[in-house]
Amino acid sequence: MSILSGKKILLGVCGSIAAFKAVALASQLTQAGAAVTTILTQDATRFVTPLSFTSVTQRPAYLDLFTPDPGRILHIALAEEADLLAVVPATAHTLGRMAQGLSDDLLTCTYLSTLAPVLVAPAMDGGMFTNAATQANLATLRERGVHIVEPLEGRLASGLVAKGRMPEVDALTAEIRTVLGRSGPLAGKTVVVSAGGTQEPLDPVRYIGNRSSGKMGFALAEAARDCGAQVILIQGATTAPPPLGMTTVSVTTAAEMLRAVEEHTVQADALIMAGAVADYRPETSRSQKAKRTGEPLTITLVENTDILRQIPPTLVKVGFAAETENVLKNAEKKLTSKNADLIVANDVSRPDSGFGADTNQVTILSKGHPPERLPVLPKAEVAAMILARVAALVRQRSDS
Ligand code: CTP
């Protein structure tokens, strides 16, 4: 179950060309299990229609403040039942009305009435966005706890290249998930997650690497974000699309990953090592491309530091044990040798588990508890179950 599943999201749509992205957003949120009710401003209907939204959400799309709704007052009922109000796109005019408390349509009346978290995604021409009035309105809203999705630099409808372009749908969904997660079990906590494989250079064009896609690490980072944590993702080589709504630190070698993990765990509450760290690196890396010699080539490898073992157990430590045989026995050993709180064991020789797959079958090992075998599940669900255990361990630590 994702954080969006069963959530009641009110989507406020204003009159901007970026409104077409709101239709795709409504569809994505609905597909993730959210119940999306749309409120359009009058000007929004110049770009999109209520029918666009009812078609993808199978739920009402409202326009008029005075829409009869027998037995209840529409804007108050919508405001009360919402888990989140997302104004996407938010025009300069609507941001101004929100900041000033003006309530002359269904969207602004609902905004004033709701106690739910509010997110706005400004979209407008560059000059309008940087104008002191818009910036002052945004500062007021920020101060009142409204989550602002920063617009991007890019090509605007006017042809101008400036800041004012609304981010794409995946980024908007990530922001919505982040806001919904704020009251989650890891709110106020920092979680460091490593993902992807390391690459150990042989020369400027060749390296020793592994088949990690980064999918499991990314799913864990997203699950930690959805639990309200501030996430620092230490990312090696990956093939999966990177997650959003977190701080990302890119690394290449195991030595770089070690340095990044050491630096970022100083203030963290948990470390999840999902990264596929090379155990060995070439003793020397040539400064020029190695040439063919016609002779066999011998490469001496030296051992890399075990990152998980190296980090002191002052924070919750979670490791993975990617095994092809004696899965549980090998994973048990890692629990002790790496002084970890949890080891997640998986048999990477199975086609439905491990490298590159969208599903995983894992067994969770922790000290003093019998191994807990989970069924084959999508990596996002495995990640959510692991994070529930991490959150409980983090809570135990801060209580003791
Ligand atoms: N790990 C690490 N530093 C390393 C190697 C592994 O932090 N140099 C972490 C991995 O991220 C993972 C856990 O240790 O969370 C186990 O990794 P795995 O490759 O299964 O085990 P190894 O310790 O490398 O042992 P072996 O390869 O001999 O099974």
Number of helices: 13
CATH architecture of the largest domain: 3-Layer(aba) Sandwich
- What Rg do the Cα atoms give? 25 Å
* Low-confidence parts: none
Identify the notable features of this structure and list them briefly:
Rossmann fold, 22 strands, elongated, 8-stranded mixed β-sheet, single chain, 6-stranded parallel β-sheet, 400 residues, binds cytidine-5'-triphosphate, alpha/beta, 13 helices, 2 domains
Structure description:
The mean pLDDT is 95. Strand 10 (200-201) and strand 11 form a beta hairpin. The chain has helices at 19-31, 50-57, 74-81, 92-100, 106-113, 126-130, 132-143, 169-181, 215-226, 254-265, 307-310, 327-337, 379-399, and strands at residues 8-13, 35-40, 61-62, 84-90, 118-122, 147-148, 152-155, 161-165, 190-195, 200-201, 207-208, 230-235, 247-250, 270-273, 280-282, 301-303, 316-323, 342-347, 359-360, 362-366, 372-373, 377-378. The chain is of the alpha/beta class and 400 residues long. The strands form 6 sheets. Strands 13-12-9-14-17-18-20-21 form an 8-stranded mixed beta sheet, with helices on both faces. Strands 3-2-1-4-5-6 form a 6-stranded parallel beta sheet, with helices on both faces. 34% of the residues lie in helices and 23% in strands. It has 2 domains: 8-181, Flavin prenyltransferase-like (Rossmann fold, 3-Layer(aba) Sandwich), CATH 3.40.50.1950; 185-280 and 298-395, 3-Layer(aba) Sandwich (Rossmann fold). Bound molecules: cytidine-5'-triphosphate. Residues 254, 273, 275, 277, 279, 304, 306-308, 319-322, 334, 338 line the site of cytidine-5'-triphosphate (CTP).
